[in-house]
């Protein structure tokens, strides 16, 4: 049903008067339509397509264009992007910078992606870093951290955190933390927990010290996810189950407390889900097969009641109920 039909029904039921219906219809008809997110997605997609097209041009025409010419072109593009971002930027501030020039944000992002293409090209063609791949990863990581703070860009910050994880041999993207990392390997597992903990602490400190407080959610989301999933993997695959269980539940508690403080649904959901997985494993990992099915029936019933309670009261948990 459209707005006009709904208003007609409300008038017919004498819920609102015709004059109020006319005012509502006039407002709904004349109000501006926001295309903010559509434009953002289009710009992000444009940057990805531009760099993909750049890679295809290089691949298809490298013999006729020449390596030096392509390197010079990418280097000029990268330098131009960073120069434009610097020229249009505001002075550095510990607080969030509300930049009205949204194009500057995307130009900076294009510059960072182009820098990666330039470095990858130099490494592939001339083996600039030889077999020292760690240097090839840490250089853009440092650059992206500097750019993220100097230009107040959370997208570049995510790239920097991802680069730091890659430097340690980890994948930190939320959808590939489990499949992209061999979390059965004790060295990788502990690296993931340490890095995730450091990122989470950095997010917490950024709020306590009021240094880019708005970056804290990015640090906590990426770092907390990595550490909590690594702790759960250690609980399942490693012998030190008590230590990993304590770590997992500690991160779950941190997520819930942080969700209440920020009134964040995503942090609350993450904390509850990880706590449920941890508690479920602790209950079932040592029981006998005979008791397993009996306990499972009771546990599923109790869990279902818990899910219903959570859905009905999550606003009270967050402190947003009125």
TrEMBL record:
* Domain named DUF2157: residues: 9-155
Which key words tag this protein in UniProt?
Membrane, Transmembrane, Transmembrane helix
- Highest taxon of source: Bacteria
Q: Which sequence ranges are marked TM in the entry?
A: 41-59, 65-86, 106-124, 130-149, 156-176, 188-206, 218-236, 242-259, 266-285, 291-312
In terms of Pfam families, this protein maps to:
DUF2157
- InterPro entries tied to this protein: DUF2157
Reply yes or no: does the keyword Transport apply: no
Name of this chain's protein: DUF2157 domain-containing protein
Recorded source organism is Dyadobacter sediminis
């Amino acid at each position: 049903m459209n707005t006009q039909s709904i208003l007609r029904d409300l008038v017919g039921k004498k819920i609102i008067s015709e004059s109020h219906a006319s005012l509502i219809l006039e407002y709904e008809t004349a109000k501006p339509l926001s295309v903010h997110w559509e434009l953002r997605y289009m710009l992000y997609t444009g940057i990805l397509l531009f760099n993909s097209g750049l890679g295809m041009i290089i691949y298809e025409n490298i013999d006729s264009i020449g390596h030096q010419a392509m390197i010079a072109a990418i280097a000029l593009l990268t330098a131009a992007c960073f120069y434009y971002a610097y020229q249009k930027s505001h002075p550095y501030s510990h607080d969030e910078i509300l930049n009205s020039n949204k194009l500057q944000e995307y130009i900076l992002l294009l510059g960072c992606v182009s820098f990666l293409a330039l470095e990858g090209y130099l490494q592939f063609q001339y083996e600039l870093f030889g077999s020292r791949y760690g240097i090839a990863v840490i250089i853009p990581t440092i650059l992206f951290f500097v750019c993220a703070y100097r230009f107040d860009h959370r997208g570049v910050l995510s790239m920097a955190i991802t680069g730091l994880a890659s430097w340690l041999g980890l994948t930190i993207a939320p959808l590939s933390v489990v499949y992209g990392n061999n979390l059965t390997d004790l060295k990788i597992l502990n690296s993931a927990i340490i890095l995730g903990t450091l990122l989470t602490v950095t997010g917490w400190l950024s709020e306590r010290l009021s240094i880019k407080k708005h970056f804290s959610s990015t640090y906590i989301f990426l770092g907390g996810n990595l550490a909590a999933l690594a702790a759960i993997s250690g609980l399942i695959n490693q012998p030190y189950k008590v230590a990993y269980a304590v770590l997992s539940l500690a991160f779950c508690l941190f997520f819930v407390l942080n969700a209440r403080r920020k009134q964040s649904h995503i942090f609350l959901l993450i904390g509850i889900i990880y706590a449920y997985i941890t508690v479920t494993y602790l209950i079932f990992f040592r029981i006998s097969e005979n008791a397993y099915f009996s306990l499972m029936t009771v546990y599923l019933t109790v869990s279902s009641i818990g899910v219903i309670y959570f859905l009905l009261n999550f606003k009270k948990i967050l402190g947003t109920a009125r």
